[in-house]
TrEMBL record:
Keyword entries, A-Z: Ribonucleoprotein, Ribosomal protein
Protein name in UniProt: 28S ribosomal protein S21, mitochondrial
Keyword Ribonucleoprotein appears in the UniProt entry: yes
Family designation: Belongs to the bacterial ribosomal protein bS21 family.
GO molecular function: structural constituent of ribosome
Superkingdom to which the source organism belongs: Eukaryota
Organism from which the protein derives: Magallana gigas (Pacific oyster)
The keyword Signal appears for this protein: no
Biological processes annotated in GO: translation
Pfam families in alphabetical order: Ribosomal_S21 (PF01165)
Gene Ontology cellular component list: ribonucleoprotein complex; ribosome
Amino acid sequence: MRHFRFVSRTVFVKNNNIEKGLQVVNRMMKDGSITAAIRKNREYMKPCEERSLVDRMRAKRIYGEGMSKKVDFLMRKSRTNPHPR
């Protein structure tokens, strides 16, 4: 299937409320990351730019994982106070 993301995406509009239907469609597209894929493929990206983008996203993900581990460690309640008064 060529456009698998669009399969089974049906919105039922009640009482001709088009605005509510558009809100639901926009939410479905945002949650399914369809708009991000469309935005990404809007213009051509050189292979070297694409590789550097992948590297930057990988570094950002690794940094975020490490930082979330540090925050989780600091937010634990059972650890002793390192600076007692």
